[in-house]
Amino acid sequence: MECGQPGVDSDLEALRARGAIDVNGEPDRVAVTLMATAGAANPIATSPGTGTSGTGGTGLGGTGGMGSVGGMM
Prior knowledge:
Blueprint: H1 6-17, H2 29-41
């Protein structure tokens, strides 16, 4: 009897074979440190006005607030 999902399991097996995760599925500490260092050196830029905190307006009319159009619902 085969367990798990073929795509997901094969991805995990590939990560484990390459040393990115251990047998328990935990990430390799060296890999985490390398990714954190690379991420800090190359942050993802965000454009102004893309936050969800809202700016200006009252009630539901501000940009990025509850009344804005778009996003996942």
